[in-house]
Amino acid sequence: GQSLEQPSEVTAVEGAIVQINCTYQTSGFYGLSWYQQHDGGAPTFLSYNGLDGLEETGRFSSFLSRSDSYGYLLLQELQMKDSASYFCAVRPVGSASKIIFGSGTRLSIRP
Amino acid sequence: GAGVSQSPSNKVTEKGKDVELRCDPISGHTALYWYRQSLGQGLEFLIYFQGNSAPDKSGLPSDRFSAERTGGSVSTLTIQRTQQEDSAVYLCASSLGDSSSYEQYFGPGTRLTVT
Known about the structure:
Chain A is mainly β.
């Protein structure tokens, strides 16, 4: 089967760094994406790792290790507006363009 | 440019009624997806359209659910004989195509409440 696992909730302090992990069980996939969703809003694309390693986009970075079946999203210099749910997602090989989403991690930022 | 739009934004219906949800993808995007999201949950894949190819309907939960895409653009998701468990936010997304499916653009969703 194919599944993605994320912590359900993470709490961090404004200005700090937080890492949201995503572990997966799938026979093969093209890459790992991350999406952000604020309460009542639509998911928005954050980053994509097609290859192993680190991708950096401003305060956000994402990492993928296929050998470890593991990825993470790193958020630096946390701001209150970063309070949201974060989803990892994969496109399994052989699934056309179907995307499998994790159940999401709710990030709460404290002043 | 304009993003993905969906209508209606909210729909309240009685159990047993049929509903139609509409999605307008970003112009030029050939791939269109429908998802369902229950409160506090992840996104559940429903159906995928790519160009003129046959849709991938593998995520539709029952035969009460159907969707079509006309002219490679607008899509309609139809739920017949609605049940209370159908209550959720229905999200539509589009992407440039297969190779860009990792980057999807989502609409604001339709919140469906079945009473």
